[in-house]
Amino acid sequence: MEVRKEELLSKADTEHDAALAAKDAFLLSQAGLFAEMASAEIKDIDEATTDAEAILVERREELTEIYAEQRRYEILLERKAEEARKLRAKKQQDALDEVAATMFANQS
After folding, report:
1. pLDDT tens digit string along 67-103?
2. 52 near 43, Cβ under 8 Å?
3. Crossing angle for the helix pair 25-107 and 2-22, nearest 10 degrees?
4. Which residues contact 45 (CB under 8 A, 6 or more apart)?
5. pLDDT at 22
6. In Å, how far are 70, 72, 75, 83 from 78, measured between CA atoms?
7. pTM of full prediction above 0.85
């Protein structure tokens, strides 16, 4: 969009300079009309840029919220997995303890 704005400004200057050099009233009026049209288009570009930037800010905020929520779920899943791992380890240890107690009882 910035490129288009620069093109319009450059073209308006070129047309105005050419009309002045030619000392032609019709060309000067046409250059003035072109400058007005270019100015209107630049205004539209600026408004579109402002709107796009506002939308971009909103989307970034939404993504930040979504990422934070996703991270909360990931943490919960990690905690559940850790709890499950600890429970399995405890069950294995309890089974080993029972085997050891049984072997000790059988030796006596």
Report:
1. 999 999 999 999 999 999 999 999 999 999 999 989 8
2. no
3. 170
4. 1, 4, 5
5. 83
6. 12, 10, 5, 9
7. no
- Residue identified by tokens 């009882």 is 105
Any idea which residue has 């450059």 for tokens? Answer: 10
| pLDDT at residue 108, as a whole number | 65
State both tokens at 98: 């029972």
Q: What is the DSSP string of the chain?
A: -HHHHHHHHHHHHHHHHHHHHHT-HHHHHHHHHHHHHHHHHHHHHHHHHHHHHHHHHHHHHHHHHHHHHHHHHHHHHHHHHHHHHHHHHHHHHHHHHHHHHHHHHHH-
Residue 74's identity, in one-letter code, is E
Give me 52's structure tokens.
Answer: 């796009």
